[in-house]
Structures are given as C-alpha cells and as structure tokens.
Amino acid sequence: MASTRCAACKYLRRRCPSDCIFSLYFPSNNPQRFAYVHKIFGASNVGKMLQDLPVHRRADAADSLYYEAHCRIKDPVYGCVGIINILHQEIHNVQCQIAKIQAEIAFIGTHAQSDQQLQIAPNLDPNFLAEQKGLSNSFDDSSTWFF
Amino acid sequence: MKNQESRSSSCAACKALKRRCTPNCQFAPYFRSDETKKFAKVHKVFGASNFSKILNEVAEEQREDAVNSLVYEAEVRLRDPIYGCIGAIASLEKKMVELEHDLMLARARLAFCVNQPSSFLNEHGNMAPCVQDIPVSSGMVEAFNQNSFYFDQFSHLPFL
C-alpha cells in the first residue's frame, strides 16, 4: 500500500492522522521544505503557530516560515534580516539619487528663469527681479512631477 | 546567601528554563538577567533547543550578531504571525520598485532639461510642471530593470 504520510510525519517517523496540521502544507513530495522548517523552528512550534491561525491563512504562514528557514540556513548569522538590511540601504541610496536629481533640476530651472528675465528686461531693478523669483519659485509641487 | 547570589546571577534564559545558570552558560553573554522578554521571544518562536543549535553553528565572534538577528526575527514573527520578516521584505521590495520607477522618471526629466533648458519654462516664464510633456523615449532613459531575486521569490504574496 502506498504511503500517504505527509513530509512532516515521514520525517518524524510517526503515523499521519487524517487531521494532521502539517499535511496540507508539507506534502510528501517536498521533504526538504519540512526539514528546513523543523531545523530552525521545530515541529512543535510550527504546529502551534499554524494551529493559532485561521485555516485560510495557514498556507501563507507555512510558505513564509519555509522562506525564513531557508534564509537562515543559507546565512546562519543574519538570515532574512540580512536581506532587510540590504534593502534598507538600497532604498536609502535611490532616495538620495532622486533628491540629488531634483536639486539639479531646480538649479537648472532657477538659471533658466533668471536668463529669461534678463533677456526680457536687462535693466530691470535687481530687487524687483528677486521678488519675481520668489513668487515664481513655487517648487512645492515639484515632487508631483515624479509621482 | 550563596543561593541568593547564584539566583541573582542567572541569565534570563536559565531563569525562563528554570535551571541553574553555569559559568559557561551558552546564553548568558547575550541575555542579561533582566532581559527576560528578549529571551521569551526567541524561546516562543524558535525554541531553546533550536536556538542553541543555531548558535553552535556560528563562529563565536559572530554569535552576538546572530542573537540580535534572531531576536529581531522572533519579534517580527510575533507581530505578524502569518508573514513575519518575509512580509517586511515584500513591502521593502515593492517600495524599491516604486522608487526605481521614480528615479527613471527623474533622470528622464533631468536629461530633457539639460538638453532643452528653454523648453523648461512655459509661456509665462514659469516652470512647466507637467511631466507628461517630456518625451520619455528620448534615447537617454536608462532601462528600467524589474528583475530582483528577492522579489521573484515572494511575488505570490497577496500584497505585491
């Protein structure tokens, strides 16, 4: 008779009951999935975590536990926290690049406006020019250019 | 007096496990006696035995970092029992994709401004705010690469 035990019960060498908490999420054709999760979290803890969740959320929880365990086995020191740190750094780098480009665009815009005003009225009162600059330099909406 | 001294010097792990804290206790360097909540988190998520095995696989000079990352992972898992740290990674990846798109637009805008500064102003001499007027495919736009190892792994999660 073919074995119908799930990967968890096979690993734990026990009978797989009909209401086994693991059977839906740790099929027998993927023994590594349960092995990883058991190594990091332990079968008992995984069973408790799944039991505490509504049935329709257990599949996602089992997946995320597997991915976390996989990350921790690949990198025993930092696990998936290492990935989080790298992503935070990358986000910060891109935000700095965007801010730098926005500053460059604002700088070009300021010079373009000054050049045009000088062309229109080269003998204009400098105080008047400064006032016009203040009125037209409403860059509050510049962030909407990119979003 | 001697018993009181040995009790007060028990690390948080040995207190939780209700055992005597030996001088070479594996957990003592990372869980002061007042850090009971810190140990409780890892104990609940990983279990003391698994936690100990994970630490044993790490070189001693890296164990403090390992403990800190495990504590963080346990905290996030307790806050989000369904997705844990994977949920955080998925959110960050999504933000990264959005920011890379914004960067692409910003670079296109800058390239256009540099090449045609006069077009930067409208007929009133003010900045033209509309970004849709910019020809994006000006040949100077960097290719937008959506390939991401981490993103692909978690792309089936519902909020991506």
Provide a descriptive summary of the structure in words.
The complex is a heterodimer of chains A (147) and B (160). Chain A has 147 residues and is an all-alpha fold. Chain A has helices at 7-11, 31-40, 43-51, 58-74, 79-120, 126-136. Chain A starts with 6 loop residues before the first helix and ends in an 11-residue tail after the last helix. Helices cover 54% and strands 0% of the residues of chain B. Chain B is built from seven helices and no strands. Classes of the chains: A mainly alpha (147), B mainly alpha (160). At the A-B interface, helix 3, helix 4 and helix 5 of A face helix 4, helix 5, helix 6 and helix 7 of B. Chain A: Residues 4-105 form the LOB domain. Chain A: Pfam families: LOB. Chain A: Belongs to the LOB domain-containing protein family. Chain A: InterPro entries: LOB.
Summary keywords:
A: 147 residues; mainly alpha; disordered C terminus; B: 160 residues; elongated; disordered N terminus; LOB (chain B); LOB domain-containing protein 21 (chain B); LOB domain-containing protein 24 (chain A)
Outline of the structure:
The complex is a heterodimer of chains A (147) and B (160). In chain A, 64% of the residues lie in helices and 0% in strands.
Write the layout of secondary structure elements.
The complex is a heterodimer of chains A (about 150) and B (about 160).
Chain A: H1 7-11, H2 31-40, H3 43-51, H4 58-74, H5 79-120, H6 126-136
Helix pairs in contact in A: 2-4, 3-4
Chain B: H1 2-8, H2 12-17, H3 36-45, H4 48-56, H5 63-79, H6 84-115, H7 149-154
Helix pairs in contact in B: 3-5
